[in-house]
Amino acid sequence: MYSFKFADIGEGIHEGKVGEILVKEGDTVKDGTNIIVVETDKVTTEIASPVNGTISKILIKVGDTIHVGQELFLIDTGSGSATSPSPAEVPVEKKEEPKEEVGASVVGEVKVSNNVLPSFESQQVEMFSSKEESSTYHNADVLASPVARLLALEHNVDLSTIKGTGPSGRILKDDILSLISNKDSSSSQPVQTTVTQQVVTAPVANSQVVTANVSQTSIATREDKAIETTPMRKAIAKAMKESWSNVAYTNLAVEIDVTELWDQRNKFKDLILEQEGIKLTLLPFIVKAISKALVKYPTFNSHVDEANGQIIQKGAVNIGIAIDTKDGLIVPNIKNADRLSVLDIAKEITLLAEKARTKKIQMSDLAGGTFSISNYGSLGASFGVPVIKHPEIAIAGIGTLENKAKRVGLHFVERKVMYLTVAADHRWVDGGDIARFVGLVKQYLENFTLLFI
């Protein structure tokens, strides 16, 4: 009988929360089969069985808080007596290389603006959509008092169907109240009412009156609902507050023309997908450019030592990639990015995205970051001011790729541009420092052959 315990996963984590139990008593498992999802304040991860056997006893339930060393399962391995793993027996995660970046919207490729170029995202993000048509749009150009507009909004009244009694036909509060009163008195159904309102739309022959039937459906009242905060969400909230409380924010943005880089990427992307199974996007090139610039400007590759009032320049260049998962934002990092090729960086991004999607991110993936990148462009945003991952000094934000007309000589030509924002801690770097840093990144991307020197 094997005693499966919650192991120490590092980074000072002593407890976690049972998010999901993936097996039931009597199930047969193999070495490497995921059997539990554990949520900590840093990561949500699946933990696998290190042995072959049958789940004999489940000692926890979903929602339980568990501590390092606590017994979670008994697994019948056929050996009889209960055993626990020695440190040497703890399995090392097998590294899998998925075929393309999926399931992580922020780590995805730089999105192309839908109104100018076809999107090459792995998934489309629909924002600010609604399945029900609102009367708000129809109310925009109607002459009405602010109070009348508010009442119309609250009662879902289309102002374009009402003849106002105020000056120049202005709709007043009493016009709305009268309509609501008539609607309530004539209604026999609690959910839907039909109000017939006479509306003179324009002077017509024989003083003809046009009658319009306006259907009004009441809006169902939603009840307040308490949402339980996950350990990861609490950790994110704490980190964001710590950043805004400690960092003196300043930021600069530059426009970067990536037309030549885009064209060069297009020449090789299909071949790389066929030979390497990797979807080559612009993000690996951007990571490479930033990592080279960090070597030239090491202050941006530093951590703040608040206790001693100094900064620690980091020897390694480990670029964190913000990944937006359904459980919250996590920032694993690419180790020694300055020493990797663009293709190797693409492979690392793909691997981290897949691990985030499948909840296989390890603490080693999260530890050691020196500079972070937020790719909000993958969600269609052009500009943004990302939040620094304190104690790091700075962070870069990548906007969506757009077509823009630019003057070249006597003519205007279509170019592909994006915006790069760098936010930094003004206590340690000045605006001139940021300008020189982002200027070098811009130079690398606009003259992409410099990336390979």
UniProtKB/TrEMBL annotation:
Using the record's annotation, list all stretches that form the Peripheral subunit-binding (PSBD) domain: 143-180
What is its EC class?
Answer: transferase
CDD domains according to UniProt? lipoyl_domain
Q: Which residues form the Lipoyl-binding domain?
A: 1-76
Q: Which UniProt keywords apply?
A: Acyltransferase, Lipoyl, Transferase
Identify the InterPro entries for this entry. 2-oxoA_DH_lipoyl-BS (IPR003016), 2-oxoacid_DH_actylTfrase (IPR001078), 2-oxoacid_DH_E2_comp (IPR050743), Biotin_lipoyl (IPR000089), CAT-like_dom_sf (IPR023213), E3-bd_dom_sf (IPR036625), PSBD (IPR004167), Single_hybrid_motif (IPR011053)
Q: Where is the composition biased (Basic and acidic residues)?
A: 91-100
The protein in question is named Dihydrolipoamide acetyltransferase component of pyruvate dehydrogenase complex
Highest lineage ranks of the organism? Bacteria, Bacillati, Mycoplasmatota, Mycoplasmoidales, Mycoplasmoidaceae
